[in-house]
Each structure stands twice: as C-alpha cells, then as structure tokens.
Amino acid sequence: xxxxxxxxxxxxxxxxxxxxxxxxxxxxxxxxxxxxxxxxxxxxxxxxxxxxxxxxxxxxxxxxxxxxxxxxxxxxxxxxxxxxxxxxxxxxxxxxxxxxxxxxxxxxxxxxxxxxxxxxxxxxxxxxxxxxxxxxxxxxxxxxxxxxxxxxxxxxxxxxxxxxxxxxxxxxxxxxxxxxxxxxxxxxxxxxxxxxxxxxxxxxxxxxxxxxxxxxxxxxxxxxxxxxxxxxxxxxxxxxxxxxxxxxxxxxxxxxxxxxxxxxxxxxxxxxxxxxxxxxxxxxxxxxxxxxxxxxxxxxxxxxxxxxxxxxxxxxxxxxxxxxxxxxxxxxxx
Length: 334
Description:
Blueprint: H1 7-24, H2 28-51, H3 61-78, H4 83-105, H5 110-130, H6 132-135, E1 141-142, H7 158-180, H8 183-193, H9 195-200, H10 205-231, E2 233-234, H11 241-254, H12 261-275, H13 284-297, H14 301-333
Antiparallel strand pairs: 1-2
C-alpha cells in the first residue's frame, strides 16, 4: 500500500506509461481517445481550481472552453494567423474575457454565483450560435490548421499530436501543483473553508476569488485551443451547457478539491463511456445511479474516498501505537 500511495513512485510510473502507450497500444482510435482525455483533464483542472479549492462553482466553464476554441479558429481560419501565435493568444483572450465577467459574477455568492455563471455560459453559446459573420453560426469553423513544425519536429501524425497533448498536460499538472501547494493555494482553501474567517485574517477574498476565477478561465481556454487544433472543426455545440456538466461530472467522480481527482475522474469516465458506446443514450441509465451513489456515500469522489481511508488507517495505527506505549509505561511503573 505504501508503494501504491508514494508520489515518488506513482508520478514517474504514470509518466513512463504515458510515453510508452503509443508503442504498447498502437491503435489510432485509442490514441485519439487518450489525446482527448488529456485535453478534457486540463479543462477539469481549471474548474477544480475554482470550485474545488475556492468553493465557487462556475457553470460557464464550457463557455470559456468554447471561447478558447473559437479564438484560435477565428485567428487561423479567418485572419490566417500562424497556429502557435493563435494558440498563445487563445487562453490569454479567454482569460481577459474571464476577468471582465468575473468582476461582475463574484459580486454574488454560493448558488447565486452558480446561477449567474450558468446564464453567462448560455449567453456565450447564443453569441457563438447567432454571430454567423464571426463564428460561422451553426456551420461552425472548418479547416483549422494543424500545429506548425518546430524545427525537425512535426505534428502531422496522430502519435505526434498525442505527445504534444501529453506534454502540455504534464506542464499544466506541474503548474497546478505549484499553485495548489503555494501560499496562493492555501489562501484559496481558506476562502473555501470560511470566507468570513479568511477576511478576519486579513485575506483579500475579492482579489483571490477573482484570481482563481481568471486562472480557471485560462486553463479552460487553453483546453479549448488544444481541442480546436486537434479536431480541426468546431461548432456552437461545444459551448452548450452539456459540456460544463460533463466537466463537472469528471471532477465530482474523481474528487472535487483533490489534486489527482481531475485525472482519475476524466480518464475513468472517458474510458468507460467509450467501452459502453454500444449502449448509446442508455449509458446514462448506468452513469446516473452510479454518480448519485457516489455523491451520497463519497462526496469528495474516488480520490477523496481513498484519502479518507488512508487517513483513518494512519489514525488507527497512531492510536494503537499510543495505547501500546501507555501500557508499556504502566507496566514499567508498576
């Protein structure tokens, strides 16, 4: 068990598995699914940074994902800008829009914030769907170019695109880890636990909530840009609320407010749902009850449940050791 829960063992092992995956399973379909899983996980990390660590649930996350996708699509298809410059601008533009929206959205709290962002997400969908001159409307944008070569490295093959997504995924995980384990991350957690107490300690809750919101939109925009560059066609459906609820499901199943939760939840559901494709719409008859049971018996998801079990096991071990020490002291005194 110690080996299975040791970060020094797990992290290098997962990286090695990610590197050798295309060689072990050289199936283009599975490469496609794994690449999408990396992209969705990045988006879920953004949602988890806000909802899991700050306690503010944004239901506009799918809309920001779509903004990132459409920014790179408009810049490359309509303005014929280079892919990499467009790719860098997409999350920055998304973050700027998120900053403007966040200044108004964070005036509300709790379920009012969720309702407000749900409306914002739907407005983003309507703008994309109706503004045909800019977004292409229901036709969407077709012909988004593949990433340009970097020296001798090209990204024409599915394997190269897989490794590109894997590299960006690792980079995002490292950045999120630094944020969560920094003073800023502890500040987010303090706001989640008690905003009034955080205020009494001198923490600027407004500034930190806005920072968390803007960071979450940045990662959503980054994931959207990766999605557009990988699929090469985008339509208004990627801005619909179902995308937000899919991301929310991945986060809840994996473990809201946990570092490994987005990875576990996203990969688990993506893999299972792909293996249940033959059930089509009836898949929800399986996912619905399972998700309900998970929320009832383990509100912090799979990773949260495992962490709780490990904590209880460690606590029992400490209590047993303390009891044993007391007995030895009593016997020695007697």
